[in-house]
Specification:
87 residues; alpha+beta; four-stranded antiparallel β-sheet; 3 helices; AntA domain-containing protein; AntA/B_antirep
Protein backbone atom coordinates (compact mmCIF):
# COMPACT_ATOMS: atom_id res chain seq x y z
CA UNK A 1 0.00 0.00 0.00
CA UNK A 2 1.35 3.41 -0.95
CA UNK A 3 0.60 6.62 0.85
CA UNK A 4 0.87 9.57 -1.51
CA UNK A 5 0.89 13.12 -0.23
CA UNK A 6 -0.47 14.30 -3.56
CA UNK A 7 -2.20 11.88 -5.93
CA UNK A 8 -0.44 11.18 -9.21
CA UNK A 9 -1.94 9.74 -12.35
CA UNK A 10 -0.89 8.57 -15.80
CA UNK A 11 -1.07 11.13 -18.56
CA UNK A 12 0.46 12.18 -21.84
CA UNK A 13 2.46 15.26 -22.75
CA UNK A 14 3.65 15.68 -26.33
CA UNK A 15 2.75 12.05 -27.09
CA UNK A 16 4.93 10.83 -24.20
CA UNK A 17 3.45 8.83 -21.32
CA UNK A 18 4.29 10.41 -17.98
CA UNK A 19 3.08 10.72 -14.42
CA UNK A 20 1.19 13.92 -13.64
CA UNK A 21 -0.35 15.64 -10.63
CA UNK A 22 -3.15 18.16 -10.37
CA UNK A 23 -1.80 21.64 -9.56
CA UNK A 24 -4.94 22.42 -7.51
CA UNK A 25 -4.18 19.46 -5.23
CA UNK A 26 -0.57 20.68 -4.89
CA UNK A 27 -1.79 24.21 -4.11
CA UNK A 28 -4.07 22.81 -1.42
CA UNK A 29 -1.33 20.58 0.05
CA UNK A 30 1.15 23.47 0.22
CA UNK A 31 -1.49 25.59 1.99
CA UNK A 32 -0.80 28.56 -0.27
CA UNK A 33 -2.51 31.73 0.92
CA UNK A 34 -3.12 33.15 -2.58
CA UNK A 35 -5.96 32.08 -4.81
CA UNK A 36 -5.08 29.24 -7.16
CA UNK A 37 -5.21 31.06 -10.50
CA UNK A 38 -2.92 33.90 -9.35
CA UNK A 39 -0.49 31.48 -7.73
CA UNK A 40 -0.15 29.10 -10.69
CA UNK A 41 0.12 31.85 -13.32
CA UNK A 42 2.85 33.58 -11.31
CA UNK A 43 4.75 30.33 -10.78
CA UNK A 44 4.57 29.35 -14.46
CA UNK A 45 6.02 32.74 -15.39
CA UNK A 46 8.59 32.85 -12.57
CA UNK A 47 9.99 29.38 -13.30
CA UNK A 48 9.65 29.62 -17.08
CA UNK A 49 7.55 26.46 -17.35
CA UNK A 50 6.50 25.52 -20.86
CA UNK A 51 3.01 24.37 -21.75
CA UNK A 52 2.97 20.87 -23.29
CA UNK A 53 6.42 20.18 -21.87
CA UNK A 54 6.20 20.91 -18.13
CA UNK A 55 2.42 20.98 -17.81
CA UNK A 56 -0.79 20.71 -19.78
CA UNK A 57 -3.91 22.84 -19.49
CA UNK A 58 -7.24 21.14 -19.11
CA UNK A 59 -10.27 23.36 -19.60
CA UNK A 60 -13.26 22.55 -17.42
CA UNK A 61 -16.64 24.07 -18.16
CA UNK A 62 -19.14 24.82 -15.46
CA UNK A 63 -18.85 24.64 -11.72
CA UNK A 64 -17.61 28.20 -11.25
CA UNK A 65 -20.20 30.97 -11.33
CA UNK A 66 -19.34 34.35 -12.77
CA UNK A 67 -20.82 37.66 -11.59
CA UNK A 68 -23.54 37.49 -14.26
CA UNK A 69 -24.89 34.23 -12.89
CA UNK A 70 -23.57 32.00 -15.67
CA UNK A 71 -20.85 29.40 -15.61
CA UNK A 72 -17.31 30.21 -16.64
CA UNK A 73 -14.58 27.86 -17.72
CA UNK A 74 -11.83 27.05 -15.27
CA UNK A 75 -8.32 25.96 -16.17
CA UNK A 76 -6.79 22.97 -14.51
CA UNK A 77 -3.05 22.46 -14.74
CA UNK A 78 -1.66 18.94 -14.83
CA UNK A 79 2.01 19.10 -13.90
CA UNK A 80 4.84 16.69 -14.55
CA UNK A 81 6.35 15.43 -11.32
CA UNK A 82 9.58 17.37 -11.93
CA UNK A 83 7.57 20.57 -12.35
CA UNK A 84 5.59 19.86 -9.18
CA UNK A 85 8.82 19.24 -7.25
CA UNK A 86 10.16 22.64 -8.28
CA UNK A 87 7.05 24.31 -6.94
Amino acid sequence: MTNQLIPVFNGTISNEATLLCDARKLHEFLDVRRDFSTWIKNRVTEYGFIENADYILVHQSGGIKNTRGGDRRSKDYHLTLNTAKEL
